[in-house]
Amino acid sequence: MAKVKVHIFLKPGVLDVQGKAVEGALNGLGWTGVSNARVGKMIEFDFDGDNAEAEVKKMCDTLLANTVIESYRIEVE
Hints:
77 residues, 2 helices, elongated
């Protein structure tokens, strides 16, 4: 059984509205050194099967990530 983490984030150049909102809020609360904030998502699951890395890549390309505007990184333990 493999423990899988998939980190998904917007590609560079894609406007991150949530990131801008977080950046603005942190600046407004006094953390003025924060810039270029980006918000992503992480999906964790257990995978019971062969060749976990390749199968999770297929999952990302098919469903988990919008590869037109998002990139992803896979961790398999």
